[in-house]
From TrEMBL:
It is found in: Cell membrane. Belongs to the cytochrome ubiquinol oxidase subunit 2 family. It comes from the Bacteria. This is Cytochrome d ubiquinol oxidase subunit II. Pfam families: Cyt_bd_oxida_II. It is a multi-pass membrane protein. The chain crosses the membrane at residues 6-34, 55-75, 81-103, 115-140, 160-183, 204-225, 231-252, 259-281, 301-326. Keywords: Cell membrane, Membrane, Transmembrane, Transmembrane helix.
Length: 340
């Protein structure tokens, strides 16, 4: 049952990046759009994510609950030593959701719409950035549980080059996901071509930033190349993600809609599999020690109960979630065309 719980944990993180990441990426694309592109992106973003954007956070909630109940020492370590980036992540989620609602449902359309737009796009950038920082910090070995002062314990671990590079990499991935997904949501050839170009650019940035992450890791002694060589699953996953790139570019050039979506989901899955496999069996790498899910698991009775709850809950929740997505994709959505 322990490995059932671990599988749910990793799948929750994967689904949050795939679905929630695409939502964040829509705001990121809007942030860097200019002129008339910004308004068109804003309207299309609402059509695409308006009905279901809040449901995507269930994956993050599931991951947190699994850590809290099943792996309390890991949960405590992360929430204690990374409470600042965790708080900033949560602030970004709350600010983004609030701004999204107010800019579309506020009864009065006035200058505050500009404020809501700014909060939405910058929190869309901020949230995946700190999510990536958290991921980069827990695998970098920078957390010192014996740190003598506040700065060394709670600031320096997540402000190094490697965590920051992972944060930027996560932002770019989210932008890439959103650009590919929005191609299928666009209703005109002009918009489809616009998001197709953005997908190409974001994909190139993803490759470049991925290489930068590896170089910074080597510079800081994390030795990602060595870790991959010792874990063939991670190496194969990275190779598959890399070889699928030209196929994605070809399909985008041929103006395909749905196959690029599948491939980009596959690429993100392989990237996360690379990360998970290269770190296995470690989940958090601290200065002088590591924490593994197997060793830090709660008692057998707790893990069994948690696993059963996850299995039974998924039977009821997942079909309803997928039906929600399906039904709203089939329903036309009326969007206000008021200029913000």
């Amino acid at each position: 049952m322990l490995y059932v719980v671990i599988a749910f944990l990793y799948l929750s993180l994967l689904f949050y990046l795939l679905f929630g990441g695409a939502d964040f990426g829509a705001g990121i694309i809007e942030l860097f759009a200019g002129g008339s592109q910004k308004e068109r992106t804003r309207l299309l973003t609402y059509q695409a994510i308006g009905p279901i954007w809040e449901a995507n956070h269930m994956w993050l909630i599931i991951a947190i609950v699994i850590l809290f109940v099943g792996f309390p020492e890991i949960y405590t370590t992360v929430s204690l030593f990374l409470h600042i980036p965790l708080s900033l992540l949560l602030i970004g989620i709350i600010a983004r959701g609030t701004a999204f609602i107010f800019r579309h449902y506020d009864a009065v359309k006035d200058h505050f719409q500009k404020v809501y737009n700014l909060i939405f796009v910058y929190s869309s950038f901020m949230t995946p950035f700190f999510l990536g920082i958290l991921a980069g910090t827990v695998i970098s070995g920078r957390i010192d549980t014996e740190a003598p002062d506040f700065l060394s314990a709670y600031i320096l671990p997540w402000t190094g080059l490697f965590p920051l590079s992972i944060g930027i990499f996560t932002v770019i991935i989210c932008g890439f996901l959103a650009a590919v997904y929005l191609i299928g949501e666009a209703t005109t050839d002009e918009d489809r071509n616009l998001f197709r170009k953005k997908a190409f650019r974001m994909n190139i940035l993803t490759v470049i930033m991925g290489a930068v992450v590896f170089l910074i890791g080597e510079f800081e002694g994390i030795q990602l190349f060595k870790q991959l060589s010792q874990h063939p699953v991670g190496f194969i996953a990275l190779a598959l993600a890399t070889t699928s790139l030209p196929i994605t570019w070809y399909l985008l050039k041929k103006q395909k809609v749905y196959w690029p979506r599948i491939l980009v989901g596959f690429q993100i899955t392989m990237i996360l599999l690379t990360l998970f496999a290269s770190q296995h069996p470690d989940f958090i790498i601290l200065k002088g020690m590591t924490l593994t899910l197997e060793e830090m698991a709660a008692g057998e009775a707790t893990i069994f109960s948690l696993g059963m709850a996850l299995l039974i809950g998924s039977i009821f929740i997942l079909p309803a979630l997928f039906y929600l997505i399906y039904s709203f994709q089939k329903r036309p959505i009326t969007v206000s065309k008021a200029k913000f």
